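Supplementary Note 3. Input sequence used for the single-chain structure prediction.
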Amino acid sequence: NIGTPITAIIGDMSSNYQGKRLAAAHLVFNVVTGAIAIVFIPQFVWAVEEISATVGIPADDYALKLAVFHTIFNVIGVAVMVPFTNQLVNALQRAIPKPKVKAVEPRYISDNAFEFPETLINAVHQETIHLYDNALEVMTRGLNLERHAVEGDGDLAQHVESSAKRKSPYELEQAYAATVKPLYADILDFISKAHTSLPAEFGARLYELREASHAIVAGVKGIQHLRKNALVYMNADNADIRDQYNAIRAHVAGLMRAIHDLAIQDEDQRDVLALDDFKIAIEDNIHTVRNALDDLIRDKRITAIMASSLMNDLDYAQDVIRRLSDMAKALYGARDAADKEVEGMVALTDEDISDMQDEPTP
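The predicted structure, written as discrete structure tokens, is reproduced below.
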């Protein structure tokens, strides 16, 4: 009874703090109950013999007698430990505390920026990039990927496939609350104050940056929804569903790599319109999967539950890609008003991309 939880503890060493607490509680329960059983072993033997005789267990049926002993063991363990539940919980919380993640602070926005409109806009622009940098860490980890691999130049599909075999515990909601949400709140608060002192000609750019910040947060939320099924299916025995979810992760990661490449390029070399390719590709994927879905279910290659999850998660992925693409255009697109207008005229809208799917194939 002590050996079993030791095995569980070894298995939970890489778990999060809640898993470690559970394993420790299991060990405490078994150690306390085991000590009681050793001290009162004569009474346990007597109780086993009495109960076995009462229920008709033969005197030489030691397997059933062992089962009786184990039942008594656990009943007494529960009876002894229940009154001390609160004390046990408090002790485990002290011994295995919840990890503390330092809350993020703004780097660029401050009250000093209100004096000069150009400085204010640049401060919000840089702070929004800072917000995306924090969110990128959350989103890549949320997809069970390593950020350095997403931002590198290695084979992304191979990295996605290999990452499926090593699930690492990650508290996405906790990381979001510590490194993304408070910074987003600071940006919104700063922008709301800026509107009262900023000349009207700067209002459109400030609104664009606010929408970019919102798109970043929405992207994190979309990854959070997508993560639930991705962790289940990305390494599933069913090759069809596994390939679909790894393709979704690779597609989102590919967009993140493209945004990273834009960020490190010189302004005159950036081609933000290339991000529309990711919108088109995910739209094509959704269209293809929808057409093939009935056959996959009918041929029992995937279940209806899998199909339902896949379609929902493709929609989440599409929303993430659309939002992050638009965010990247706002942060890394043209600064000049005339160039921005041309950029906007050439860029594909979501309606344009949807209409492309509705066009008949020649």
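The mean pLDDT is 85. The two ends are 70 Å apart (CA to CA).
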